[in-house]
Design a protein that fits this description.
- By secondary structure, this protein is of the alpha/beta class.
- Helices cover 42% and strands 17% of the residues.
- The protein has 12 helices and 13 strands.
- The strands form 4 sheets. Strands 3-2-1-4-5-6-11 form a 7-stranded parallel beta sheet, sandwiched between helices.
- The protein is globular.
């Protein structure tokens, strides 16, 4: 059999979208999706598709790879939450132990020629003394101490170890900025869906976004043979061009903000997590305090891809899907213009 691609995390929105795109790619003969739950909608496409209901923390994944003679593994099951559970322990086990089990299975599989791992720019952390822009080779000033960011750091460490043991396998690590989109199931998507956005008093962080369409396209390019003049092996930051302040993003979405002391925001975030209303983790709180910006030169010049959506455009697509907020920009602009026209007349009457 030719190119057989195994995709972990196919039960999630990004995984199912990627699997569907992959089935229509020339040269892809079979797509194998692995997750504890099947996708919520059918995955269409030309190439044969097989769903395997399995937990990657279990050794069964090795049998799946061997039975289907998998040639490419795309590991997307590294996330802030896990399907079927809200336990932080279960999330960490899936992210870290699951990755270890997967890498052990891939290491023993002579058929595997390519490994793609979804990571995050959270590995750089968010701290007040961070550099203005992170490049792939830079180390964070303060290493993440917990949550999804720490999981991602550990996952990347295991992937580097795998690369040394299997130098014959092409390995690509994709560090995605915050993914936004009409249907993206990401913490920042949930945050921007709130009618009023709590912010940290005295801070206005710089943010970058990547549209979910660009995320799928980057994964597609990473899973296939590189185009001439490019390479898709290595570590790459993935983000849309441009940077936005949180205050700018809120205005574009028409969302009023409520500045709150950092301690109060932490307390509110804890309550939201306990009530399962919002996955507002400590790492997200640090991001919304100090921000984070990454350099994407390697993505454009080495990997050979320029995102179709800028940071601003990715946010605009989310805003169009959500509809106008409590303070639509057009209404605010009209009100401001009306005040501006009225103010000189009022001043003139007062002086007269």
């Amino acid at each position: 059999m030719g190119n057989v691609v195994l995709v972990t995390g196919v039960g999630r929105h990004l995984g199912s979208r990627f699997a569907q795109v992959l089935r229509d790619q020339p040269g892809v003969d079979h797509v194998v999706g692995v997750d504890v739950q099947p996708p919520s909608h059918p995955i269409g496409g030309a190439a044969p598709y097989t769903f395997v209901g399995a937990d990657i923390r279990r050794p069964v994944v090795a049998r799946v790879i061997a039975d289907h003679q998998v040639t490419t593994v795309v590991h997307l099951n590294v996330s802030t939450t896990t399907l079927g559970s809200t336990s932080r322990g279960a999330v960490k086990e899936t992210n870290v132990i699951g990755t270890m089990q997967l890498l052990a299975a891939v290491q023993k599989a002579p058929s595997v020629q390519r490994l793609v791992v979804k990571s995050t720019t959270s590995v750089y952390g968010s701290a007040p003394r961070d550099p203005a822009v992170f490049q792939e080779r830079m180390q964070p000033k303060v290493l993440p101490t917990g949550g999804f960011a720490k999981d991602a750091v550990e996952v990347e460490g295991y992937v580097r170890g795998f690369s040394r043991r299997r130098p014959d396998v092409a390995v690509g690590v994709l560090r995605f900025a915050n993914i936004l989109g009409p249907d993206a199931d990401t913490p920042l998507n949930e945050y921007f869906a709130l009618p009023v956005l709590p912010t940290v008093l005295g801070f206005d962080p710089r943010l970058q976004f990547v549209h979910e369409d660009d995320a799928v396209e980057v994964l597609r390019l990473a899973a296939l043979d590189p185009r001439r003049g490019t390479t898709n092996s290595g570590t790459f930051n993935v983000a849309g061009d441009g940077v936005m302040l949180l205050s700018q993003a809120a205005r574009r979405l028409g969302k009023p903000t409520v500045p709150v002391l950092l301690q109060a925001v932490s307390f509110m975030a804890g309550l939201a997590r306990q009530a399962r209303l919002l996955d507002f983790s400590p790492e997200q709180l640090r991001l919304l305090t100090h921000g984070r910006v990454v350099d994407t030169t390697l993505l454009r010049e080495t990997f050979g891809y320029t995102p179709a959506f800028t940071t601003e455009q990715a946010l605009a697509c989310l805003g169009a899907a959500q509809g106008p907020g409590l303070l639509p920009p057009a209404r605010v602009a009209a009100w401001t213009d009306r005040v501006a026209r009225t103010l000189p007349v009022t001043i003139e009457r007062t002086q007269g």
